[in-house]
Model the fold of this input.
Amino acid sequence: MKTKNRKKLASLLRPYIKVNSLVSKMFRNLYPNFSYCERCGLPWSLCNSKAVDYSENSGTFATCDYCFEKSTLEEIKIYYTTVYKKQESCLRGTSYKMDHTLEHLLKCVERDYLSLHGA
Ligand SMILES: [Zn+2]
Done:
């Protein structure tokens, strides 16, 4: 299936996809090479990730744009914290270090969230 059609299918199914549901798990089994949204669990092949820029050239994403819009700021911060910790633990034992702090990332998340939700 073409990416455009897949995303269309996923957006039609969207109302039925509960937070991290069996449907999302099924989709993840179809696309095991993609990582996925921390909230709904859909792989990135089926949804658009919401990137939060933490510097001029770098960004990170924990949820899709749909979930970013539907979550509270507190929830979003938890998702981004989880992803940050995952990234941090992937780097453990290598010579790489995170180039930004969690505190800074969460400030950027809050900035994007507030600008999207018009607070
Ligand atoms: Zn999502």
